[in-house]
Amino acid sequence: MNANETKLAFASDYMEGAHPAILRRLMETNMMKTPGYGADGFSESARRKIREACQAPSAEIHFLVGGTQTNATVIDALLRSWQGVVAASTGHIATHEAGAIEFGGHKVLALPQENGKITASSVLACVEAYRRDENRDHTVMPGMVYISQPTEYGTLYSLSELTALSDVCRAYHIPLFVDGARLAYALACPANDVTLPDLARLCDVFYIGGTKCGALFGEAVVFPKPDTAPHFFTVVKQHGALLAKGRIAGIQFETLFTDHLYEQLGKNAVAAADRIRAALLEKGYQLALDAPTNQIFVLLDPAQLANLSAKIEMGFWENTPDGKTIMRIATSWATQPEDVNRLIACL
Amino acid sequence: MNANETKLAFASDYMEGAHPAILRRLMETNMMKTPGYGADGFSESARRKIREACQAPSAEIHFLVGGTQTNATVIDALLRSWQGVVAASTGHIATHEAGAIEFGGHKVLALPQENGKITASSVLACVEAYRRDENRDHTVMPGMVYISQPTEYGTLYSLSELTALSDVCRAYHIPLFVDGARLAYALACPANDVTLPDLARLCDVFYIGGTKCGALFGEAVVFPKPDTAPHFFTVVKQHGALLAKGRIAGIQFETLFTDHLYEQLGKNAVAAADRIRAALLEKGYQLALDAPTNQIFVLLDPAQLANLSAKIEMGFWENTPDGKTIMRIATSWATQPEDVNRLIACL
Amino acid sequence: MNANETKLAFASDYMEGAHPAILRRLMETNMMKTPGYGADGFSESARRKIREACQAPSAEIHFLVGGTQTNATVIDALLRSWQGVVAASTGHIATHEAGAIEFGGHKVLALPQENGKITASSVLACVEAYRRDENRDHTVMPGMVYISQPTEYGTLYSLSELTALSDVCRAYHIPLFVDGARLAYALACPANDVTLPDLARLCDVFYIGGTKCGALFGEAVVFPKPDTAPHFFTVVKQHGALLAKGRIAGIQFETLFTDHLYEQLGKNAVAAADRIRAALLEKGYQLALDAPTNQIFVLLDPAQLANLSAKIEMGFWENTPDGKTIMRIATSWATQPEDVNRLIACL
Amino acid sequence: MNANETKLAFASDYMEGAHPAILRRLMETNMMKTPGYGADGFSESARRKIREACQAPSAEIHFLVGGTQTNATVIDALLRSWQGVVAASTGHIATHEAGAIEFGGHKVLALPQENGKITASSVLACVEAYRRDENRDHTVMPGMVYISQPTEYGTLYSLSELTALSDVCRAYHIPLFVDGARLAYALACPANDVTLPDLARLCDVFYIGGTKCGALFGEAVVFPKPDTAPHFFTVVKQHGALLAKGRIAGIQFETLFTDHLYEQLGKNAVAAADRIRAALLEKGYQLALDAPTNQIFVLLDPAQLANLSAKIEMGFWENTPDGKTIMRIATSWATQPEDVNRLIACL
Could you tell me which residues come within 8 angstroms of residue C128 by beta carbon, excluding any fewer than 6 positions away? Predict the structure, then answer.
């Protein structure tokens, strides 16, 4: 089916269908009849399991379809018209969402980043600069903070970093939103010390990514406190993000949160990435940055690029001013050990 | 899983998962690796099959997730900022999309309807009124025409009606857009004389509904002429409507357009609806309108409503001024003959 | 300067510059230095005078430039994204604002009207229909009510009608917004029983029109209760509606609210319109509707139209199905008695 | 009228009313009757004079009210939904318009700047980076380029810089838009070599600022080629930017473009600014940057700030990391030589 089928496929973490347990469960439940729009029992059961995993018994949970959609919908639901969303200049909403946030009427207030991360102090500086600006009423108010865990560069916020960000946000009554499109690969990472209950405690809203973490599609938006975003159901509908057959998302998340599947599948990906990282370093390749999750950003000179590209399907990331190229190697829940072996043999 | 499980479930046509052939195919292909965002071979194969079914060899085809999303994205892609979309006052975009069209900046120019349909002459009158209005530059220009086939009331445009609408639209260079969320149930209807090739010939864009016609989700947008909507891929992304695992939609539509499955599953629904309609009339129930597809709108007095509601899960439609209630009974590809028998026995 | 200068000019109420007292005051104050954006003393003085005239000592008042702009800004400031604005189907926002409300993301929920007016009972029915609709979360919530005083057809809401509307709005916590683009001509009308203090008491926001009532431009938005619309200054800026030289609007409204000028200039217009109405009826012309303010809508057959159009510049309103034309004759603060005489002589 | 009236007022260039010639002309023409919305003879005459001054005989010209409004309207009229506007990170649209561009659905693509200016090579790099990005369909396309002449920092693009920018834009079919809110102060500057005909030749659209250059308000948008922005009148209306009494803007621009008034009044401001700049340097003050037009950005330590602020009303610009403050001193067409003398005496 695929022109590149003879290459080793490491271009992204969404190249397969779904974890087999999800497909099995879709099969088993297929002919049951349920009401639409998330009012079904599967979705309700998934919500219960997620609340439990997050230790957030009153959390309000909605299932959306994809990441850009979820970001645009959540941000639009929480911002007022005169506010913008603070994000790393490399944040997904600032770069790779085709202007979806601006389409909703809001400015992305980009902050300098390091390895894809912003700091509590830079957020504090941004908010304080706004408050001290005598012309602030002519500018966009920082109205929420968006971060990704893991970031677009595969790096992680530590618990202390996240706590510091949360503290600043709470001090200024600014919601903190965590994009967890790849959250399984953070949770599974040995270097990670931020748990789901931590996220529920420290954020105003976050989502648990399904699309890139074993589901056919789907993102579970968690508002630890109910009614954080009034009329969110209608906002979701208005954004075209409401599934008629909401159960299809519900069944997937119910499965992911049964028997710790979500954590398990993250571990496979991170273990594979760790093996590849070690091999790259051993063979003298240069990593563009040090990231511990399922994404590896390797800096290749033209010869290396030509050589590896012939054998391995990687993701293009960016060209550097000195003529090199940053390519992304991504593992996933579906990565097979033998493919990792073959990749390492190519290096 | 469902509080209403002991009732007969006829509330909507999206209460089950997907046609078993679709789930089987998802299983078979699950671990194959493909590129994302619709660039996979399954999606390409689905496009080929749809082009063939539509006799539209150069059609441009995109797979989106749901109906409101598809309407909002297509309309936003084709309208300029000073234009609005002409629709029946009962059109889905005018009533049940939570303002998704206005969220995109566009006015819905509602026309009077009969049984959910608008006429070529009313569109002509609307366009001519605009052109003759000396103050037209202070008003919203009719910039496209939206109809649904079947309509929200289950009725059908005949080929001559559709041709007349198309003629008016072409005379004024206004795109004609057909919402086919339930298209399978139109195509399968004995009373229908509008084929897929007719739609491709007469419309500028239409979509083939999957969500309500046997798929887990998905709508196939068909532009019979390529580049009708420039940069449509990016517009889809901006609307949060781009699937990372585009193959999941592609596989579903490939299956639906293999061995005439899409037409077959429509026939089951219409046959079931025909049996119910006949029984309702025989038992003296009053239909709110005469519709030949898979939706039945029955007008119930309070006693009838109480009686039937106790046994049958129906969809609430509207209260009438004289104290009656219009309820919707919907059949689908999944409706079982024995459930139809039981429903008829309740009447 | 004007191709039609030999015709009698009755096409609109914005054909001259400003009341001479305004120009004089602009002259006198021209070289004084003030801060921008409405923080000047003239604007502050105008606000004080308007608060006094409205008997609303804590009212928050902003000066904007034009009517469409004011409607779009106020409506956007008060609605949340999931809400729409209820208005007469003939309301300015529903017809002649080129989709400015939809550009801001909101649907106009049009109600049937009579002589340009909606009723408390129709608003109540609309709100109750929303609340009782089981699918309401898929629809646009009625989030505010917009009326015009006088209406686009020159008619007036009586105090009892306005009170009834206000009662419904308050019962449901829905803001009531009165577009007073021609408010001077309502206030000056013998048939009127709604005063500025009534408006301040019964509405959540209204504006006092300047553009059509003697100013070069300008509309004074009055929120009887401060902070009704949070960050309104920034919303005004975002809508491009903030004047750098805010004083120019302030000086005009200060003048209009000194020595009862605003009421006086309305009286001239209404007296002139009354004379014309009486003459039209006496000569056997048919009025399209009975309106007591400065606008006269006359229904002309083709011969009458040809005859009058040759001598009098009127405003085109609409063609009727039976081949007649509704034309508008408008008087203003600037209408001269001799021009009224000449017009009457033409009839 | 003004709490600061005893201070020397140099905070901005919009502290007075209008040039006396404008007020005189408004007086003379006040009671003439003209049609609305810019269809009057004064506006037509102003358009003729501007076309002549720009040596652009077929230019399409519209009069809007203010700068933010004009930027938002022009940008929205020229961009398609998938495009953003390239601007200096210090550009007015990127900083001080309260998100008006994003409210219209578009992203500002901020480029690094030097002294408020961007370069042809940085625009080229931005456009080429987009074209070479394999993921470009997931990003915002650079759809137009926005610069200010003079910039927000009072600096000027030279003819060769502007030509280079224009060349890049034309090579890539990207419109070039010049914000001329303070254009009079560029045209009047001895250091300037960019004329109105140059702007008309090199740009796709620009505007001639009135608000900050001697008018009560008003910006003249010039499209050198007609129909550059289709249905621009309606877009203006939709943005709430259409004046009912369009003549008020027309009369002002007719006056500004009679007997070279627009250039003359710029000269007064620049001459005053030159005297102040020389005195500041002579007294040992540090300028934040070297700008030749009517705005002076002076870097003050806390003692200097306290001293000068007690006597001179300046505009706050920004705090620097090292504890100093950048204040703006602005002159205008209305600046009196004796006030300049007094300011210099305070230094």
Answer: none
Residue C260 makes CB contacts below 8 A (sequence gap 6+) with: none
Q: How do beta strands A141-148 and A108-111 pair?
A: unpaired
pLDDT tens digit sequence for A55-103: 999 999 999 999 999 999 999 999 999 999 999 999 999 999 999 999 9
Choose which CATH entry (3.40.630.30, 3.40.630.10, 3.90.1150.10, 3.30.565.10) describes domain A8-16+263-346.
Answer: 3.90.1150.10
Residues of chain C with CATH 3.40.640.10: 20-256
Contact check, Cβ <8 Å, B141/D231: yes
* Interface membership of A1 toward B (CB under 8 Å): yes
> Chain C partners of B76 at a C-beta cutoff of 8 Å?
none
Is D264 in a helix, a strand, or coil?
helix
- B235 min Cα distance to partner chain D (Å): 6
Look up the CATH superfamily of D8-15+261-346.
Answer: Aspartate Aminotransferase, domain 1 (3.90.1150.10)
DSSP structure string for D99-114:
THHHHTT--EEEE--B
Of C97, C105, C135, the CB nearest to B103: C105
pLDDT of residue D112: 97
- ipTM given for this complex: 0.96
How many Cβ atoms from other residues are within 10 Å of residue C259's Cβ?
Answer: 10
Report whether A8 contacts A346 (CB < 8 A): yes
Give helix then strand counts, H and E, for chain B: 14, 13
Q: Is the pTM of this model over 0.95?
A: yes
CB contact under 8 Å between B17 and A4, yes or no, is: no
Segment B114-133, tens digit of pLDDT: 999 999 999 999 999 999 99
Which of A101, A131, A137 is the best substitution to test chain C (most C C-beta atoms within 10 A)? A137
Q: What is the CATH number of domain A20-256?
A: 3.40.640.10
Q: Do D135 and A96 touch (CB under 8 A)?
A: yes
How far apart are alpha carbons B327 and B318 in whole angstroms?
7
Question: Do residues B144 and B78 lie in contact, with contact meaning Cβ atoms separated by under 8 Å?
Answer: yes
| pLDDT higher than threshold 60 for residue A264 | yes
The token pair that represents A343 in the structure block: 């990749």
Say yes or no: C65 contacts chain D, CB-CB below 8 A. yes
Q: What is residue A4's predicted lDDT score, i.e. its pLDDT?
A: 45
Minimal CA separation from A48 to chain D, in Å = 35
pLDDT of C3 reads 42
Residue-level pLDDT at B319: 86
Task: Give the per-residue pLDDT at D318.
Answer: 86
Of all residues in chain D, the percent with pLDDT exceeding 90 is 96
Average pLDDT estimate for C184-192 = 97
Q: Which of C17, C40, C41 sits opposite D26 (nearest CB)?
A: C17
Calpha distance B276→B294 (Å, rounded):
10
The per-residue DSSP string of D183-221 comes to: HHHHHT-TT----HHHHHHH-SEEEEE-TTTTSSS-EEE
Tell me, yes or no, if D202 comes closer than 8 A to chain A by beta carbon.
no
C-beta atoms of A31 and B42 within 8 A? no
CA–CA distance, D12 with D1 (Å, rounded to integer):
17
The pair of structure tokens assigned to D330 is 């602005």
Question: What residue spans in chain C does CATH classification 3.90.1150.10 cover?
Answer: 8-16+261-346
- Tokens 């690969």, located at residue: A185
**Chain C CA closest to residue D69:** C240
- Asked if residue B4 has pLDDT above 60, the reply is no
CA A230 to centroid of chain Cα atoms = 24
C138 vs A contacts (CB less than 8 Å):
234, 237
Contact between chains at B82 and C99 (C-beta distance less than 8 A): yes
The β-bridge partners of A125 are none
Interface of D with B in 82-141 (CB under 8 A): 82, 105, 137-138, 141
